[in-house]
Amino acid sequence: MSDTPLKVYVVDDDPAMRNSLPRALRKRGFEVEVFASAPEFLAQYDGTQTGCLVIDLRMPEMSGLELQEHLGSAAQFLPMVFISGHGGVRESVQAMKGGAMDFIEKPFRSAALVERIEAAFALLRERLEMREKCAELRQRFDRLTAREAEIVSRIVACPAEISSKEIGRHLGISPRTIDHHRARILEKLEIRSTAELVGLATRLRIDCESSNLASGLPSQE
Amino acid sequence: MSDTPLKVYVVDDDPAMRNSLPRALRKRGFEVEVFASAPEFLAQYDGTQTGCLVIDLRMPEMSGLELQEHLGSAAQFLPMVFISGHGGVRESVQAMKGGAMDFIEKPFRSAALVERIEAAFALLRERLEMREKCAELRQRFDRLTAREAEIVSRIVACPAEISSKEIGRHLGISPRTIDHHRARILEKLEIRSTAELVGLATRLRIDCESSNLASGLPSQE
DNA sequence: GATTGCGTAGGCAATTCTGCCTATGAGCTT
DNA sequence: AAGCTCATAGGCAGAATTGCCTACGCAATC
Protein backbone atom coordinates (compact mmCIF):
# COMPACT_ATOMS: atom_id res chain seq x y z
CA MET A 1 0.00 0.00 0.00
CA SER A 2 1.27 3.42 -0.80
CA ASP A 3 -0.09 4.73 2.45
CA THR A 4 2.60 2.81 4.29
CA PRO A 5 5.45 5.28 4.57
CA LEU A 6 8.57 4.01 2.86
CA LYS A 7 11.26 3.31 5.39
CA VAL A 8 15.01 3.31 5.17
CA TYR A 9 16.63 0.43 7.03
CA VAL A 10 20.22 1.21 7.88
CA VAL A 11 22.32 -1.86 8.69
CA ASP A 12 25.88 -1.09 9.71
CA ASP A 13 28.20 -2.41 12.38
CA ASP A 14 30.02 0.91 12.58
CA PRO A 15 28.58 2.98 15.45
CA ALA A 16 29.71 6.19 13.80
CA MET A 17 27.63 5.41 10.73
CA ARG A 18 24.69 4.32 12.82
CA ASN A 19 24.84 7.71 14.40
CA SER A 20 25.48 10.00 11.46
CA LEU A 21 23.51 8.33 8.68
CA PRO A 22 20.07 8.32 10.28
CA ARG A 23 20.60 11.88 11.35
CA ALA A 24 21.27 12.98 7.76
CA LEU A 25 18.48 10.86 6.32
CA ARG A 26 15.88 12.00 8.80
CA LYS A 27 16.76 15.56 8.00
CA ARG A 28 15.84 14.75 4.41
CA GLY A 29 12.46 13.53 5.50
CA PHE A 30 13.07 9.79 5.48
CA GLU A 31 11.82 7.52 8.17
CA VAL A 32 14.76 5.49 9.39
CA GLU A 33 15.36 2.35 11.42
CA VAL A 34 18.83 1.30 12.46
CA PHE A 35 20.39 -2.11 12.98
CA ALA A 36 23.89 -3.02 14.09
CA SER A 37 24.00 -6.27 12.15
CA ALA A 38 22.24 -8.25 9.47
CA PRO A 39 20.89 -10.85 11.93
CA GLU A 40 19.50 -8.02 14.02
CA PHE A 41 17.64 -6.78 10.97
CA LEU A 42 16.41 -10.27 10.13
CA ALA A 43 15.21 -10.80 13.68
CA GLN A 44 12.52 -8.17 13.23
CA TYR A 45 11.93 -8.86 9.55
CA ASP A 46 8.65 -10.67 9.03
CA GLY A 47 8.75 -10.89 5.26
CA THR A 48 6.17 -8.21 4.68
CA GLN A 49 8.08 -5.02 5.37
CA THR A 50 9.19 -3.03 2.39
CA GLY A 51 11.64 -0.21 2.18
CA CYS A 52 15.16 0.67 1.21
CA LEU A 53 18.04 -1.19 2.80
CA VAL A 54 21.20 0.84 3.24
CA ILE A 55 23.70 -1.76 4.18
CA ASP A 56 27.36 -2.08 4.91
CA LEU A 57 29.19 -4.60 2.77
CA ARG A 58 31.51 -5.97 5.43
CA MET A 59 30.10 -6.88 8.79
CA PRO A 60 31.27 -9.45 11.33
CA GLU A 61 28.38 -11.88 11.72
CA MET A 62 26.83 -11.69 8.31
CA SER A 63 27.97 -9.66 5.34
CA GLY A 64 25.73 -7.51 3.23
CA LEU A 65 26.08 -9.98 0.40
CA GLU A 66 25.02 -12.83 2.63
CA LEU A 67 22.00 -10.86 3.72
CA GLN A 68 21.15 -10.19 0.10
CA GLU A 69 21.41 -13.87 -0.70
CA HIS A 70 19.40 -14.78 2.35
CA LEU A 71 16.58 -12.44 1.40
CA GLY A 72 16.36 -14.01 -2.03
CA SER A 73 13.37 -12.95 -4.05
CA ALA A 74 11.94 -11.04 -1.11
CA ALA A 75 14.68 -8.51 -1.85
CA GLN A 76 12.48 -7.33 -4.69
CA PHE A 77 10.61 -5.31 -2.16
CA LEU A 78 13.70 -4.35 -0.19
CA PRO A 79 15.95 -2.62 -2.73
CA MET A 80 19.47 -2.47 -1.35
CA VAL A 81 22.05 0.27 -1.49
CA PHE A 82 25.42 -1.09 -0.47
CA ILE A 83 28.03 0.94 1.29
CA SER A 84 31.57 -0.27 1.18
CA GLY A 85 34.70 0.78 2.99
CA HIS A 86 37.26 -1.52 1.50
CA GLY A 87 35.19 -3.61 -0.83
CA GLY A 88 36.58 -4.52 -4.16
CA VAL A 89 35.26 -4.90 -7.64
CA ARG A 90 34.39 -8.53 -7.08
CA GLU A 91 31.99 -7.75 -4.25
CA SER A 92 30.40 -4.80 -6.00
CA VAL A 93 29.75 -6.84 -9.12
CA GLN A 94 28.27 -9.66 -7.10
CA ALA A 95 26.02 -7.22 -5.30
CA MET A 96 24.83 -5.65 -8.51
CA LYS A 97 24.24 -9.03 -10.14
CA GLY A 98 22.27 -9.95 -7.06
CA GLY A 99 19.92 -7.11 -7.81
CA ALA A 100 21.36 -4.35 -5.67
CA MET A 101 20.17 -0.86 -6.51
CA ASP A 102 23.56 0.63 -6.11
CA PHE A 103 26.93 0.28 -4.50
CA ILE A 104 28.80 3.29 -3.21
CA GLU A 105 32.17 3.67 -1.62
CA LYS A 106 33.11 5.50 1.52
CA PRO A 107 33.55 8.31 1.83
CA PHE A 108 30.48 9.61 0.07
CA ARG A 109 28.46 12.78 0.09
CA SER A 110 25.18 12.24 1.86
CA ALA A 111 23.48 13.89 -1.11
CA ALA A 112 24.71 11.04 -3.28
CA LEU A 113 23.25 8.48 -0.92
CA VAL A 114 19.96 10.31 -0.80
CA GLU A 115 19.79 10.27 -4.59
CA ARG A 116 20.28 6.52 -4.59
CA ILE A 117 17.70 5.99 -1.94
CA GLU A 118 15.21 8.02 -3.87
CA ALA A 119 15.89 5.98 -6.98
CA ALA A 120 15.40 2.84 -4.90
CA PHE A 121 12.08 4.12 -3.65
CA ALA A 122 10.96 4.92 -7.16
CA LEU A 123 11.70 1.35 -8.21
CA LEU A 124 10.13 -0.02 -5.08
CA ARG A 125 6.94 1.92 -5.67
CA GLU A 126 6.72 0.49 -9.16
CA ARG A 127 7.17 -3.02 -7.87
CA LEU A 128 4.64 -2.58 -5.13
CA GLU A 129 2.11 -1.29 -7.60
CA MET A 130 2.73 -4.28 -9.82
CA ARG A 131 2.41 -6.62 -6.87
CA GLU A 132 -0.84 -5.08 -5.82
CA LYS A 133 -2.22 -5.20 -9.32
CA CYS A 134 -1.37 -8.89 -9.48
CA ALA A 135 -2.86 -9.55 -6.09
CA GLU A 136 -6.13 -7.96 -7.11
CA LEU A 137 -6.33 -10.02 -10.25
CA ARG A 138 -5.36 -13.15 -8.39
CA GLN A 139 -8.04 -12.54 -5.79
CA ARG A 140 -10.70 -12.50 -8.42
CA PHE A 141 -9.41 -15.64 -10.04
CA ASP A 142 -9.30 -17.36 -6.69
CA ARG A 143 -13.05 -17.10 -6.39
CA LEU A 144 -13.46 -19.52 -9.24
CA THR A 145 -14.30 -23.13 -8.52
CA ALA A 146 -12.06 -25.89 -9.83
CA ARG A 147 -14.30 -26.54 -12.78
CA GLU A 148 -14.54 -22.89 -13.65
CA ALA A 149 -10.78 -22.50 -13.44
CA GLU A 150 -10.41 -25.50 -15.71
CA ILE A 151 -12.58 -23.85 -18.30
CA VAL A 152 -10.63 -20.62 -18.00
CA SER A 153 -7.41 -22.54 -18.53
CA ARG A 154 -8.82 -24.16 -21.56
CA ILE A 155 -9.99 -20.88 -23.02
CA VAL A 156 -6.71 -19.14 -22.37
CA ALA A 157 -4.60 -22.02 -23.61
CA CYS A 158 -6.60 -22.45 -26.73
CA PRO A 159 -8.55 -19.29 -27.57
CA ALA A 160 -9.10 -20.49 -31.10
CA GLU A 161 -11.66 -23.02 -29.98
CA ILE A 162 -13.80 -21.40 -27.42
CA SER A 163 -17.33 -22.18 -28.45
CA SER A 164 -19.18 -23.89 -25.66
CA LYS A 165 -19.70 -26.80 -27.97
CA GLU A 166 -15.97 -27.32 -28.44
CA ILE A 167 -15.15 -26.92 -24.79
CA GLY A 168 -17.98 -29.25 -23.87
CA ARG A 169 -16.67 -31.87 -26.21
CA HIS A 170 -13.18 -31.44 -24.80
CA LEU A 171 -14.39 -31.90 -21.23
CA GLY A 172 -16.94 -34.54 -22.11
CA ILE A 173 -19.90 -32.60 -20.75
CA SER A 174 -22.84 -30.77 -22.20
CA PRO A 175 -22.27 -27.45 -23.95
CA ARG A 176 -25.15 -26.11 -21.92
CA THR A 177 -23.19 -26.67 -18.73
CA ILE A 178 -20.29 -24.74 -20.21
CA ASP A 179 -22.61 -21.85 -20.87
CA HIS A 180 -23.62 -21.95 -17.25
CA HIS A 181 -20.02 -21.95 -16.04
CA ARG A 182 -19.10 -19.19 -18.43
CA ALA A 183 -21.77 -16.96 -16.99
CA ARG A 184 -20.50 -17.61 -13.46
CA ILE A 185 -16.92 -16.92 -14.57
CA LEU A 186 -17.75 -13.59 -16.15
CA GLU A 187 -19.77 -12.65 -13.11
CA LYS A 188 -17.06 -13.56 -10.62
CA LEU A 189 -14.31 -11.87 -12.58
CA GLU A 190 -16.47 -8.82 -13.14
CA ILE A 191 -15.97 -8.84 -16.85
CA ARG A 192 -18.32 -8.92 -19.77
CA SER A 193 -16.81 -11.01 -22.51
CA THR A 194 -14.63 -13.98 -23.17
CA ALA A 195 -12.26 -11.62 -24.95
CA GLU A 196 -11.81 -9.65 -21.79
CA LEU A 197 -11.16 -12.86 -19.94
CA VAL A 198 -8.35 -13.76 -22.28
CA GLY A 199 -6.85 -10.31 -21.92
CA LEU A 200 -7.06 -10.45 -18.16
CA ALA A 201 -5.61 -13.92 -17.87
CA THR A 202 -2.83 -13.14 -20.31
CA ARG A 203 -1.83 -10.06 -18.38
CA LEU A 204 -2.02 -11.91 -15.10
CA ARG A 205 0.20 -14.69 -16.34
CA ILE A 206 2.79 -12.39 -17.85
CA ASP A 207 2.86 -9.91 -15.00
CA CYS A 208 3.07 -12.54 -12.35
CA GLU A 209 5.63 -14.75 -13.96
CA SER A 210 8.00 -11.80 -13.82
CA SER A 211 7.41 -11.34 -10.13
CA ASN A 212 7.74 -13.96 -7.46
CA LEU A 213 4.00 -14.12 -7.10
CA ALA A 214 3.48 -16.70 -9.79
CA SER A 215 1.65 -19.61 -8.31
CA GLY A 216 -1.83 -20.98 -8.20
CA LEU A 217 -2.59 -19.48 -11.56
CA PRO A 218 -4.99 -20.96 -13.96
CA SER A 219 -2.25 -23.23 -15.16
CA GLN A 220 -1.09 -23.70 -18.71
CA GLU A 221 -2.20 -27.33 -18.41
CA MET B 1 18.12 -16.49 -36.17
CA SER B 2 19.74 -19.17 -34.17
CA ASP B 3 21.48 -20.43 -37.28
CA THR B 4 23.73 -17.39 -37.14
CA PRO B 5 26.70 -18.55 -35.10
CA LEU B 6 27.14 -16.44 -31.99
CA LYS B 7 30.31 -14.46 -32.15
CA VAL B 8 32.60 -13.10 -29.51
CA TYR B 9 33.86 -9.59 -30.22
CA VAL B 10 37.05 -8.87 -28.34
CA VAL B 11 37.84 -5.17 -28.01
CA ASP B 12 41.12 -4.42 -26.28
CA ASP B 13 43.94 -1.97 -26.89
CA ASP B 14 46.46 -4.32 -25.34
CA PRO B 15 48.15 -6.35 -28.09
CA ALA B 16 48.98 -9.12 -25.64
CA MET B 17 45.30 -9.61 -24.88
CA ARG B 18 44.37 -9.38 -28.54
CA ASN B 19 46.76 -12.20 -29.09
CA SER B 20 46.06 -14.51 -26.17
CA LEU B 21 42.31 -14.10 -25.70
CA PRO B 22 41.15 -15.13 -29.16
CA ARG B 23 43.49 -18.05 -29.04
CA ALA B 24 41.96 -19.32 -25.82
CA LEU B 25 38.40 -18.61 -26.93
CA ARG B 26 38.75 -20.26 -30.31
CA LYS B 27 40.11 -23.32 -28.58
CA ARG B 28 36.83 -23.42 -26.66
CA GLY B 29 34.91 -23.37 -29.90
CA PHE B 30 33.92 -19.73 -30.06
CA GLU B 31 34.05 -17.69 -33.20
CA VAL B 32 36.05 -14.57 -32.44
CA GLU B 33 36.63 -11.17 -34.00
CA VAL B 34 39.22 -8.80 -32.62
CA PHE B 35 39.32 -5.02 -32.47
CA ALA B 36 42.01 -2.75 -31.10
CA SER B 37 39.63 0.01 -30.09
CA ALA B 38 35.98 0.81 -29.57
CA PRO B 39 35.80 3.04 -32.66
CA GLU B 40 37.29 0.25 -34.70
CA PHE B 41 34.50 -2.01 -33.53
CA LEU B 42 31.89 0.63 -34.23
CA ALA B 43 33.27 1.18 -37.72
CA GLN B 44 32.17 -2.27 -38.78
CA TYR B 45 29.08 -2.41 -36.59
CA ASP B 46 25.94 -2.01 -38.64
CA GLY B 47 23.43 -2.31 -35.83
CA THR B 48 22.34 -5.81 -36.73
CA GLN B 49 25.19 -7.94 -35.49
CA THR B 50 24.66 -9.80 -32.27
CA GLY B 51 27.16 -11.52 -30.07
CA CYS B 52 29.11 -11.19 -26.90
CA LEU B 53 31.38 -8.21 -26.43
CA VAL B 54 34.47 -8.85 -24.34
CA ILE B 55 35.77 -5.42 -23.76
CA ASP B 56 38.54 -3.66 -21.90
CA LEU B 57 37.39 -1.01 -19.49
CA ARG B 58 40.18 1.49 -20.10
CA MET B 59 41.14 2.31 -23.63
CA PRO B 60 42.66 5.46 -25.10
CA GLU B 61 40.18 6.69 -27.68
CA MET B 62 36.97 5.45 -26.19
CA SER B 63 36.46 3.59 -22.93
CA GLY B 64 34.37 0.49 -22.56
CA LEU B 65 31.82 2.48 -20.62
CA GLU B 66 31.59 5.03 -23.39
CA LEU B 67 31.05 2.26 -25.91
CA GLN B 68 28.34 0.82 -23.71
CA GLU B 69 26.64 4.17 -23.51
CA HIS B 70 27.03 4.71 -27.22
CA LEU B 71 25.39 1.40 -28.04
CA GLY B 72 22.40 2.27 -25.92
CA SER B 73 19.51 -0.10 -26.26
CA ALA B 74 21.23 -1.95 -29.09
CA ALA B 75 23.42 -3.38 -26.34
CA GLN B 76 20.55 -5.69 -25.53
CA PHE B 77 21.74 -7.86 -28.35
CA LEU B 78 25.41 -7.33 -27.58
CA PRO B 79 25.81 -8.46 -23.98
CA MET B 80 29.07 -7.12 -22.62
CA VAL B 81 31.67 -8.71 -20.40
CA PHE B 82 34.04 -6.08 -19.11
CA ILE B 83 37.66 -6.74 -18.35
CA SER B 84 39.46 -4.34 -16.11
CA GLY B 85 43.08 -3.92 -15.19
CA HIS B 86 42.91 -1.07 -12.75
CA GLY B 87 39.24 -0.22 -12.76
CA GLY B 88 37.60 0.63 -9.50
CA VAL B 89 34.29 -0.03 -7.89
CA ARG B 90 32.78 3.07 -9.41
CA GLU B 91 33.36 1.89 -12.97
CA SER B 92 32.25 -1.64 -12.31
CA VAL B 93 29.02 -0.46 -10.75
CA GLN B 94 28.37 1.88 -13.64
CA ALA B 95 28.98 -0.92 -16.09
CA MET B 96 26.63 -3.26 -14.27
CA LYS B 97 23.95 -0.62 -13.98
CA GLY B 98 24.37 -0.04 -17.69
CA GLY B 99 23.35 -3.62 -18.28
CA ALA B 100 26.73 -5.33 -18.49
CA MET B 101 26.67 -9.08 -18.15
CA ASP B 102 29.72 -9.15 -15.97
CA PHE B 103 32.85 -7.36 -14.95
CA ILE B 104 36.01 -9.27 -14.21
CA GLU B 105 39.41 -8.16 -13.06
CA LYS B 106 42.76 -9.04 -14.47
CA PRO B 107 44.27 -11.40 -13.99
CA PHE B 108 41.60 -13.99 -14.56
CA ARG B 109 41.46 -17.63 -15.43
CA SER B 110 40.30 -18.08 -19.00
CA ALA B 111 37.83 -20.64 -17.72
CA ALA B 112 36.15 -17.89 -15.72
CA LEU B 113 35.82 -15.74 -18.81
CA VAL B 114 34.41 -18.61 -20.81
CA GLU B 115 31.79 -19.18 -18.15
CA ARG B 116 30.73 -15.55 -18.37
CA ILE B 117 30.61 -15.62 -22.13
CA GLU B 118 28.44 -18.67 -22.05
CA ALA B 119 26.08 -16.99 -19.62
CA ALA B 120 26.00 -14.01 -21.95
CA PHE B 121 25.13 -16.22 -24.88
CA ALA B 122 22.35 -17.85 -22.92
CA LEU B 123 20.86 -14.46 -22.19
CA LEU B 124 21.40 -13.33 -25.74
CA ARG B 125 19.62 -16.35 -27.12
CA GLU B 126 16.64 -15.62 -24.92
CA ARG B 127 16.52 -12.05 -26.09
CA LEU B 128 16.84 -12.99 -29.72
CA GLU B 129 14.02 -15.46 -29.38
CA MET B 130 11.88 -12.80 -27.79
CA ARG B 131 12.74 -10.35 -30.52
CA GLU B 132 11.87 -12.83 -33.19
CA LYS B 133 8.62 -13.73 -31.55
CA CYS B 134 7.73 -10.05 -31.44
CA ALA B 135 8.76 -9.51 -35.02
CA GLU B 136 6.53 -12.33 -36.19
CA LEU B 137 3.56 -10.96 -34.34
CA ARG B 138 4.30 -7.47 -35.54
CA GLN B 139 4.50 -8.65 -39.13
CA ARG B 140 1.03 -10.02 -38.95
CA PHE B 141 -0.34 -6.88 -37.38
CA ASP B 142 1.36 -4.79 -40.02
CA ARG B 143 -0.82 -6.33 -42.70
CA LEU B 144 -3.84 -4.64 -41.21
CA THR B 145 -5.17 -1.51 -42.85
CA ALA B 146 -5.55 1.67 -40.82
CA ARG B 147 -9.21 1.06 -40.24
CA GLU B 148 -8.65 -2.51 -39.21
CA ALA B 149 -5.93 -1.50 -36.80
CA GLU B 150 -8.25 1.10 -35.35
CA ILE B 151 -10.82 -1.56 -34.65
CA VAL B 152 -8.21 -3.81 -33.11
CA SER B 153 -7.11 -0.97 -30.86
CA ARG B 154 -10.64 -0.39 -29.80
CA ILE B 155 -11.21 -4.04 -29.03
CA VAL B 156 -8.00 -4.38 -27.08
CA ALA B 157 -8.45 -1.14 -25.18
CA CYS B 158 -11.99 -1.90 -24.29
CA PRO B 159 -12.71 -5.63 -24.49
CA ALA B 160 -15.83 -5.21 -22.42
CA GLU B 161 -17.66 -3.61 -25.30
CA ILE B 162 -16.82 -5.50 -28.39
CA SER B 163 -20.11 -6.16 -30.07
CA SER B 164 -20.08 -4.88 -33.60
CA LYS B 165 -22.96 -2.68 -32.68
CA GLU B 166 -21.01 -0.92 -29.96
CA ILE B 167 -17.88 -0.52 -32.04
CA GLY B 168 -19.95 0.77 -34.93
CA ARG B 169 -21.57 3.33 -32.74
CA HIS B 170 -18.19 4.36 -31.40
CA LEU B 171 -16.76 4.84 -34.88
CA GLY B 172 -19.93 6.25 -36.33
CA ILE B 173 -20.33 3.57 -38.99
CA SER B 174 -22.60 0.62 -39.59
CA PRO B 175 -22.22 -2.48 -37.43
CA ARG B 176 -22.30 -4.45 -40.65
CA THR B 177 -19.09 -2.82 -41.76
CA ILE B 178 -17.48 -3.75 -38.47
CA ASP B 179 -18.42 -7.34 -39.11
CA HIS B 180 -16.72 -7.12 -42.44
CA HIS B 181 -13.55 -5.68 -40.94
CA ARG B 182 -13.56 -8.22 -38.17
CA ALA B 183 -13.57 -11.02 -40.67
CA ARG B 184 -10.61 -9.49 -42.51
CA ILE B 185 -8.77 -9.00 -39.23
CA LEU B 186 -9.18 -12.59 -38.13
CA GLU B 187 -8.17 -13.76 -41.56
CA LYS B 188 -5.05 -11.61 -41.74
CA LEU B 189 -3.93 -12.47 -38.24
CA GLU B 190 -4.66 -16.13 -38.82
CA ILE B 191 -6.80 -16.44 -35.76
CA ARG B 192 -10.31 -17.59 -35.19
CA SER B 193 -11.87 -15.52 -32.47
CA THR B 194 -11.91 -12.09 -30.97
CA ALA B 195 -10.70 -13.66 -27.75
CA GLU B 196 -7.59 -14.89 -29.50
CA LEU B 197 -7.09 -11.43 -30.90
CA VAL B 198 -7.12 -9.91 -27.44
CA GLY B 199 -4.66 -12.51 -26.20
CA LEU B 200 -2.35 -11.93 -29.13
CA ALA B 201 -2.45 -8.16 -28.88
CA THR B 202 -1.97 -8.24 -25.14
CA ARG B 203 1.07 -10.43 -25.42
CA LEU B 204 2.45 -8.32 -28.23
CA ARG B 205 2.06 -5.13 -26.28
CA ILE B 206 3.57 -6.50 -23.08
CA ASP B 207 6.43 -8.35 -24.74
CA CYS B 208 7.39 -5.49 -26.94
CA GLU B 209 7.19 -2.74 -24.43
CA SER B 210 9.89 -4.53 -22.50
CA SER B 211 12.14 -4.68 -25.53
CA ASN B 212 13.18 -1.76 -27.66
CA LEU B 213 10.91 -2.93 -30.44
CA ALA B 214 7.87 -1.08 -29.21
CA SER B 215 6.61 1.08 -32.02
CA GLY B 216 3.91 1.02 -34.60
CA LEU B 217 1.74 -1.08 -32.39
CA PRO B 218 -1.95 -0.92 -32.43
CA SER B 219 -1.76 2.06 -30.16
CA GLN B 220 -3.57 2.52 -26.91
CA GLU B 221 -5.27 5.50 -28.55
C1' DG C 1 -8.58 3.84 -68.93
C1' DA C 2 -8.62 -0.51 -66.41
C1' DT C 3 -7.37 -2.75 -62.32
C1' DT C 4 -6.69 -3.15 -57.56
C1' DG C 5 -7.22 -2.17 -52.68
C1' DC C 6 -9.91 -0.07 -49.21
C1' DG C 7 -13.94 1.49 -46.65
C1' DT C 8 -18.46 1.53 -46.78
C1' DA C 9 -23.08 -1.18 -46.49
C1' DG C 10 -26.79 -4.54 -46.99
C1' DG C 11 -29.14 -9.51 -47.30
C1' DC C 12 -29.57 -14.10 -45.64
C1' DA C 13 -28.98 -18.29 -43.10
C1' DA C 14 -26.65 -21.14 -39.78
C1' DT C 15 -24.51 -21.09 -35.56
C1' DT C 16 -23.57 -19.33 -31.19
C1' DC C 17 -23.99 -16.59 -27.10
C1' DT C 18 -26.61 -14.71 -23.27
C1' DG C 19 -29.95 -14.23 -19.77
C1' DC C 20 -33.48 -15.97 -17.24
C1' DC C 21 -35.99 -19.87 -15.69
C1' DT C 22 -35.95 -24.92 -13.56
C1' DA C 23 -33.96 -29.27 -11.72
C1' DT C 24 -31.15 -33.22 -9.85
C1' DG C 25 -27.51 -35.43 -7.31
C1' DA C 26 -23.10 -35.28 -4.69
C1' DG C 27 -20.72 -33.64 -0.94
C1' DC C 28 -20.13 -30.80 3.06
C1' DT C 29 -21.52 -28.14 7.22
C1' DT C 30 -24.51 -26.97 10.86
C1' DA D 1 -32.31 -33.55 8.74
C1' DA D 2 -31.84 -29.10 6.70
C1' DG D 3 -29.18 -25.96 4.19
C1' DC D 4 -25.36 -24.84 1.30
C1' DT D 5 -22.26 -24.99 -2.77
C1' DC D 6 -21.03 -27.15 -6.90
C1' DA D 7 -21.41 -29.60 -11.26
C1' DT D 8 -24.50 -31.21 -14.18
C1' DA D 9 -28.28 -30.24 -17.83
C1' DG D 10 -32.34 -28.62 -20.26
C1' DG D 11 -35.91 -24.90 -22.29
C1' DC D 12 -36.61 -20.69 -24.50
C1' DA D 13 -36.15 -16.15 -26.56
C1' DG D 14 -33.48 -12.39 -27.98
C1' DA D 15 -29.07 -10.82 -29.42
C1' DA D 16 -24.75 -11.45 -31.66
C1' DT D 17 -21.41 -13.77 -34.60
C1' DT D 18 -20.03 -15.88 -38.88
C1' DG D 19 -19.78 -17.03 -43.64
C1' DC D 20 -21.00 -16.15 -48.08
C1' DC D 21 -22.99 -13.23 -51.46
C1' DT D 22 -23.44 -8.39 -53.79
C1' DA D 23 -22.53 -3.41 -54.40
C1' DC D 24 -20.70 1.51 -54.75
C1' DG D 25 -17.32 5.28 -54.44
C1' DC D 26 -12.59 6.72 -53.94
C1' DA D 27 -7.74 6.67 -54.56
C1' DA D 28 -3.66 4.83 -56.19
C1' DT D 29 -1.37 2.23 -59.62
C1' DC D 30 -0.30 0.12 -63.88
Given the helix and strand composition of chain A, which structural class is it? Answer: alpha/beta
* Widest sheet: strand ordering of chain A: 2-1-3-4-5
Mean residue pLDDT of chain A: 87
Order of helices and strands of chain A: EHEHEHEHEHHHHH
Strand content of chain A: 5-15%
For the largest interface, the chains and their residue counts are: A-B, 32 and 32 residues
CATH fold-level name of the largest domain in chain A: Rossmann fold
How many strands, what sense, and barrel or not for the largest sheet of chain A?
5 strands, parallel
What's the CATH H-level homologous superfamily of the largest domain in chain A? Response regulator
| Fraction of residues in H or I helices of chain A | 55-70%
Q: Give the N-terminus to C-terminus distance of chain A in angstroms.
A: 33 Å
Tally of structural domains of chain A: 2
In the CATH hierarchy, the architecture of the largest domain in chain A is 3-Layer(aba) Sandwich
CATH class of the largest domain in chain A: Alpha Beta
Oligomer: homodimer
Bulk shape of chain A: elongated
* Count of individual helical segments of chain A: 9
Which helices and strands, and how do they pair?
The structure is a homodimer of 221-residue chains.
Chain A: E1 7-11, H1 15-27, E2 31-35, H2 38-44, E3 51-56, H3 64-71, E4 80-84, H4 89-97, E5 102-105, H5 110-142, H6 146-157, H7 164-171, H8 175-189, H9 194-210
Helix pairs in contact in A: 5-9, 6-8, 7-8
Chain A binds a DNA duplex (30 and 30 nucleotides) through residues 145-148, 163-165, 173-177, 179-183, 186, 194.
